[in-house]
Amino acid sequence: MQQRRSRLRERLVALLELPGDVVLDVPRATLIGSAELVVENHRGLVEYRPDRVVVKVHDGRMAIDGDDLRIGYLSPDQVVLHGRISGLRYVPPEGGGA
User: Fold this and answer.
1) Which residue stretches of 17-59 are H helix?
2) How far is CA 50 from CA 47, 69, 81, 83, in A?
3) Pfam families in the record, alphabetically (predicted)?
4) What is the pLDDT of residues 24-37, one digit of tens each?
5) What pLDDT digit, counting tens, does each position of 39-53 carry?
6) What pLDDT is stored for residue 6 in this prediction?
7) What is the per-residue pLDDT across 55-71, written as a single tens digit (0 to 9) for each?
8) Which pLDDT score is estimated for 94?
9) Where are the domains of the chain?
10) Which of 3, 10, 35, 62 is most buried by a 10 A CB count?
11) Cα distance between the two ends of the chain
12) Alpha carbon of residue 1 to chain centroid
């Protein structure tokens, strides 16, 4: 049932040409050079260290690696990180379920 709803939403987004990141509740990451990262549609911080930040997103986690990482701004739907960002990767949920 959940997969059916998800497919229906995806078709509706394509048909109406709506922004998928907003309607489908998927994260949007905007990297500005290697010094700033904006993550929208997050679900909170999981880990926060100067060399690694892990952000919970709708279907998994987003891991950000770097040096001197710090939070510039945090709200319920957006986090802005500053520092020297060297890597960004999506980590699927444990068990690999969708």
Assistant:
1) 20-23
2) 10, 5, 11, 9
3) YabP (PF07873)
4) 577 889 999 999 99
5) 999 999 999 999 999
6) 65
7) 999 889 999 999 999 99
8) 79
9) 26-91
10) 62
11) 13
12) 25
Long-range pairs for 2-8: beta carbons < 8 A, 24 or more residues apart: 3/98
**Record: fold of 26-91:** Immunoglobulin-like (2.60.40)
Instruction: Sort 53 into a burial class: Cβ within 10 Å, 0-12 / 13-18 / 19+.
Output: buried
Eight-state DSSP code of residue 77: S
Number of Cβ within 10 Å of residue 70's Cβ equals 11
Distance CA 84, CA 90 (A): 19
Residue 57, sorted as left (phi over 0), alpha (psi -120 to 50) or beta, turns out to be: beta
**What was the pLDDT predicted at 98?**
45
Neighbour tally for 26: CB within 10 Å: 13
Q: Which amino acid is at 80?
A: V
